Amino acid sequence: MTNHWKDIKNADVVLVMGANPAENHPCGFKWALEARDENGAKLITIDPRYTRTSAVADKHLQIRPGSDIAILGGLIRHMLANDLHHADYVRAHTNGSFIVSGDFGFEDGLFSGFDEAASRYDKTSWNYEMGPDGFVRRDMTLEHPRCAFQLLKKHYERYTPAMVAQIAGCSEEKFLEMADIICSTGRAHRVGTIMYAVGWTMHTVGSQMIRTGAIVQLLLGNIGRPGGGINALRGHANVQGATDHAIVAGILPGYLRVPTPEQATLRDHLEASTPKPLVEDTVNYWGNYPKFLVSQLKAWFGDNATAANEFGYQYLGKQDGDATWLSIWDEAHKGRLEGFVTLGFNPLLAGPDVPRLLQSMSKLKWMAVIDPFLLDSAEFWRAPGMDPAEVDTEVMYMPTTHWIERDGSFTNSGRWAQWKEKAIDPPEGVQSDTWLLSELFWRVKELYQQEGGAYNEPIQNLTWNYLNPREPTLTELAKEINGYDRSTGRLLDSFGQLTADGATSSGNWIYAGSYTEAGNMMARRGTEDPTGLGMHHDWTWSWPLNRRVLYNRASADAEGQPWDQTRAGIAWNGREWIGDVPDYGRTTPPDGAGAFIMTEEGVARLFSSHLADGPLSEHYEPVESPTTNALHESVPVNPVINWYDGVRETLATEGDDFPYACTVYRVVEHEHFVTHNVPLLVEAMPDFFVEIPEGLAAEKGIENGGRARVWSKRGEVEGVAIVTKRIKPLLVNGKTVWTVGIPVHWGFVGVTRGAMANLLTPYIGDANTRCPEFKAFLVNVERAEPQST
Amino acid sequence: MSRRTFLKASVAGGVGISALGFDLRPAYAAVRQLKIRNAREYKTVCPYCAVGCGTIAYVHGSGGLNTTNTIIHVEGDSDSPINGGTLCPKGASQMQLAISPRLRKSPMYREAGSSEWREVDWDFAMEWFARKFKESRDNTFIEQDAQGRTVNRTNGIAWVGSATVANEDAYLITKTMRAMGLTYIDHQARI
Description:
The complex is a heterodimer. By secondary structure, chain A is an alpha/beta fold. Among the domains of chain A are: 5-232, Dimethylsulfoxide Reductase, domain 2 (3-Layer(aba) Sandwich); 648-784, Barwin-like endoglucanases (Beta Barrel). In chain A, strand 17 (484-485) and strand 18 (490-491) form a beta hairpin. By secondary structure, chain B is α+β, with helices and mostly antiparallel strands. Chain B folds into three domains: 1-32, no CATH class; 40-98, ADC-like domains (N-terminal domain of TfIIb, Single Sheet); 108-190, no CATH class. Chain B contains six helices and eight strands. In chain B, the strands form three sheets. Chain B has a three-stranded antiparallel sheet with strand order 1-2-3. A three-stranded mixed sheet of chain B has the order 6-7-8. Chain B has a two-stranded antiparallel sheet with strand order 4-5. Chain B is elongated and about 95 Å long. Chains A and B meet through helix 2, helix 10, helix 13, strand 12 and strand 13 of A and strand 1, strand 2, strand 3, helix 3 and helix 4 of B. Strand 14 of chain A pairs antiparallel with strand 4 (108-110) of chain B, so a sheet runs across the interface.
């Protein structure tokens, strides 16, 4: 989230799209209801289903799964055609004025620079035009035909209300009614927020859906403001923190980059990772990258990290190509992955194309499963349809503690790192994750000392200076994450104190300030709220530097005065910034630098060369779509997604009989799969079900409460049929499209058992993140027996 | 005035036979203490979604040597600015997750081709884990790639998870696995 949960109460308009917070984030969603009840805010849902959130919304727009960019592109066109955007904000705080290369173009669904053989873009033509001073040329009138603002306007001109309706299957009138409400926040005294979740990320164009949402918010002047922002709701207690601390392919803690083979030396890596300013007046905060990385290496390798050995740079494995989920299991499918470790996770139920995943798991030599509960994944060798005798994978299941048996911090989606107390001891025989990890580390280290083996200098040199090296405390680790001045041994207050010469250490620079000499900031419990905006600066701690709204410099105009005095993020009083912790030097005057301190442009990017699939977004169909691409039939799907070997054969093609769109979702009674173990919740929501629209059910002879079978080209599921009014048939490209809904919560281990939704889903991912396309695919449906129970 | 305070007030006033015409003393005797009365409070955070609702776990037990503490109740923390004491159905029933009889207490091992688990002790489990880890690392470690570039990595082992562990453990996982040379590292955020 750019903002945080309680901040949603400050909004005038709440757009919920690609999310269903009333169901999946009920206690956070109450701040949207507070906005509605106290501010008279309008609440809008745009979703393939009429959800529990829709049930309390002012407006609901039903769309076809995967058509979100068409809707958002239509919003952009609507606001620009009618001057509903926040022009002063766009001029002051975005790259709308930046001139783009004359070689840039877009034709028939392809941006300039497309390399068909490699299925990728050469992005040179997406760059800015540079002036003689070495900085980007700008036109502050935003009228230059090649300025980002004009290119954007031209690009989305095709997204007319008629086109939106044709692609998404909604009515033009309803779209326009909703568009007017959302665009009403383009005025300085109004502000709107977007709440989204995996309904956006889980598409082959997922990153671009989110980016288009961000463009909408920038054009309306809603980023950086209380009550505004673009807010990812997120699904697990510490999914934000685990991402910050980089249990993630391609990044190191604090969003630093994993080295690549061409970066032979530390110097190469720092040069490639440290952006150069593109304009004169930018803070370009990532310019401090060397301080963050060197301090991290000092936290990891201590005295063994010196200038002479590049601070241990060569100890880090250099990643070649993609290393995300789909690539990991592709490697296993090819028989090249030997071992798989999973901790606090149920991969078999979570990944797409379960039949393929089972094949991949069976090819592993060994698997270690670490979790408080015995999971489906640990028992994959006896999943339905599997013959254990055929599976040679050794499996070790190890029970570890869960959240209430340990202290430590969880970071919520609003970036608040909240320390929790340990309530009880674990049962006899159960170990902590910290113990297990330490034990693995020491045993592997000792084996190398005894036997030698592959390059193990980094293992021998890894800092493990904890009081009990076989089980560090989480307090010790929290301090290591925060970081020290190595000469005095004092904890740091801020990442502003970090240096690139090895004098400081910090395990994760964005958490610097979370555990200082003044104590554990994450454990604070002050409830005061002097801002009146729900910021609560004394309640726990949020990264970075306890800032509650990211990019808050943009909550004020060029002179530093809040766009809306009643909801001021920060304000310049002539000497310093007051309000939230400023996203800017506290005493830097308003004209000191651009508001977006993390970009080399100093402003936010309406047009960006950072994504793989375009500097602007474009509507592409899901890889399995019930229709053609109405914008460009010759380029129906995202042209730069990666096709793993054998995947094309697992997708529905013309001539196959999979006429219905399908999407997957969660219900309030379950949290993915772990709630299989909670009798009260199983009682409340006992069975797997299939949600089928009334008209389709009638056509197929399926009764409410009867049974239905749903199958894709990859697998099939069967369950209780819920015949629903919540999904209406849509007219898409002149053809009626039905959508079927499937909940994701069931497996074959637990108090409740039922079909695995991911038997159906396709093995294909987003062009940037490779997040799989769970949310839009094709199925067929039929009546199953018995119909009444 | 709630029923309980009414009853207390009536009795405290020394009224044996109240104005209602019947004796309230037996009813007063039946007023029970809250079950959390002697419990210790621990401030924690809900384990489910990423809203981060504050919760309070109430624990019975002295905390002394050879005693077992038990959670007797979990409720929303009314001080939390996020949830203000509210919890959803999952959060409200989290005690059943916290002290579930389904929680396992011993490592288990499944041999190649076997259709059964076998309970093993931690020493066996960790010896197996470290041995497998080192074997696969040694088998697959690449110091230099085909172009002769130093890469110092293994693609033979993957580590996945988790979005359910504390920040401090998440950090330790990354630190340790990067030092081991893994690049196949991912978690729930991807899927």
